[in-house]
Amino acid sequence: MESTRLQKIQRLIQKDLSEIFRQDTAKMQGVLVSVSSVRVSPDLSIARVHLSVFPSERGKEIIDSANHNEKTIRYALAQRVRNQLRKTPQLVFYIDDSLDYIEHIDELLKK
């Protein structure tokens, strides 16, 4: 069971990371990246960030790029949350393929 404090921190990180990715992907034509969920460890040391990428073919490329540039993204996040959090958690990015899974189920149901 997650505490209220942990849920607030997860929402804060999700909101600020969404804004960071929105600004970064505005330069890339035809790519949309959204932060679907953030799970923070109880000791606030690691944040698991699930990204939803459209088009999904570019998902692996975006996740690899985000994990490679984790320090820069973490620094940008730290600048935004410096008044709310003392220490910014380490970020680990994962692809959220739930939309592809839903689409696959819909195709199977239509058959």
List keywords for this structure.
111 residues; alpha+beta; GMP Synthetase, Chain A, domain 3; three-stranded mixed beta sheet; globular
Strand-helix topology:
Layout: H1 4-25, E1 32-40, E2 46-54, H2 59-68, H3 70-81, E3 90-95, H4 98-110
Parallel strand pairs: 2-3
Antiparallel strand pairs: 1-2
Task: Summarize the structure in words.
The chain has four helices and three strands. With 111 residues, the chain is α+β, with helices and mostly antiparallel strands. Strand 1 and strand 2 (46-54) form a beta hairpin. Helix 1 packs across helix 3. The longest helix has 22 residues, at 4-25. It is globular, with a radius of gyration of 15 Å. It starts with a helix and ends with a helix. The model has no long low-confidence stretch (mean pLDDT 88).
Mean pLDDT: 88
CA radius of gyration is 15 Å
User: How many structural domains in the coordinates?
Assistant: 1
Which CATH first-tier class would you pick? Answer: Alpha Beta
CATH architecture: 2-Layer Sandwich
Q: What can be said about the biggest beta sheet? A: 3 strands, mixed
Mind telling me the CATH superfamily name? K homology (KH) domain
